[in-house]
């Protein structure tokens, strides 16, 4: 499973909920990409899909998204043991993602077994 598949949700539904258009998101992603290029301590530049995922989780605040991306990659480098066993593409994680869905009011629901 490609990591990008893990971040797929009904983007149009979420954008509508927040009053954002596809062009708004593209502009925000470009701003964040330019900022990421200046952050030499960060190991990689995430995909557009991953950046949009962070934007969504930060309620489309560019500054909060920058802080979250910085913290995510910084902590990952400072404490690699914490992330070593958290491969999002492992079979256990794939099963967990299959039990996650969006319900009608745009709430993410995760079932546990």
Automatic annotation (TrEMBL):
GO terms for cellular component: membrane. GO terms for molecular function: phosphatidylinositol bisphosphate binding. InterPro entries: CRAL-TRIO_dom_sf, CRAL/TRIO_N_dom_sf. This is Uncharacterized protein LOC114342040 isoform X1. The lineage of its organism: Eukaryota, Metazoa, Ecdysozoa, Arthropoda, Hexapoda.
